[in-house]
Every structure is written in structure tokens, then in C-alpha cells.
Amino acid sequence: IIASNITADEGQSVTLPCRAIAADKSQITWMLKASSGLVTNIVSTANIQLDPSGDLTYASVKSDNRGKHICEACNTAGCKSVDAFLNVLCK
Which of 69, 73, 72 shows the shortest CA–CA distance to 61? Predict the structure, then answer.
């Protein structure tokens, strides 16, 4: 499983890539860990797209999207996760 860290300006379109390399098709989910330590699942909205290939795209990134994103890939062999940090620079 591969992901990467990104720094972006507020309002910019941002894609956090996540790729699972496995023989079986993997189900990929994204979570966001807030500074409080609370982890929430990320779901598709008008501003957030979850691509079937694993990418997470914010159409217009906001400061509350900042933080540690966790990409988790699960298949018949089990689950693996990787962190990707999104830093949002306020205007």
C-alpha cells in the first residue's frame, strides 16, 4: 500500500493517492485523525470524491481537512494501512 504527504493552499483541488498492490482486489477506505485524536471515516460529498482506485480528492480543500489521513486497504488476506498528512496553508 502506497500513499503520500501533500501541502496545499486553501481552496485548491487536492488528490491524496493511495494504491494497494495485491493479487486480490482491495477495498480502500479513508479516515481522518483530528488533532483531538478522534478518527472519522471520510465519505463522498459534493467536495470530496473517493475514487474506486483508492484516490481521495478534495475539490476545494479547507483548513478543517488538515491532518493525518489514514488509507486502509482490505482484502481476503487482511488489512493494511498507511498515513498521509495533508497540510493546508490558509490564505
Answer: 69
